[in-house]
């Protein structure tokens, strides 16, 4: 995917902009990292007898992370499909432009040949 992004800097810039927006969105949203850190220190402090609430907090964190992973995977699939569509559109547009250029250059060479033929007649 990085090779595609290197070839199409506009797509790379757009993806970076989306990533920055999402990062800012998640920075504003309250994160549950504090709960995880506190529960880990409680586990260490208690030794072999972890608190029941700690296990529940860890299970809740695991559940949240799994849901986040599913969300990210679906976003990744959608972005990949969108990128493939845009790549296809760009390749088709490039092919159209190349055909126009080839058509224009061949028609200009025909005009040059016609001028030479006219000069040779004179």
From TrEMBL:
Organism domain of life: Eukaryota
Keyword Coiled coil: yes
Coiled-coil parts of chain: 55-82
Keyword Coiled coil: yes
Keyword vocabulary terms for this entry: Coiled coil
Protein name: Cyclic nucleotide gated channel, invertebrate
Organism encoding this protein: Apis cerana
């Amino acid at each position: 995917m990085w090779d595609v992004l290197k070839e199409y800097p506009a797509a790379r810039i757009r993806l970076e902009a989306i990533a920055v927006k999402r990062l800012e969105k998640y920075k504003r949203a309250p994160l549950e990292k504090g709960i995880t850190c506190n529960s880990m220190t409680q586990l260490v402090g208690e030794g072999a007898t972890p608190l029941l609430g700690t296990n529940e907090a860890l299970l809740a964190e695991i559940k949240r992370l799994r849901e986040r992973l599913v969300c990210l995977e679906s976003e990744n699939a959608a972005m990949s499909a969108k990128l493939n569509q845009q790549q296809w559109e760009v390749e088709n547009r490039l092919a159209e432009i190349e055909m126009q250029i080839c058509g224009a250059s061949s028609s200009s060479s025909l005009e040059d040949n016609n001028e030479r033929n006219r000069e040779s007649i004179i």
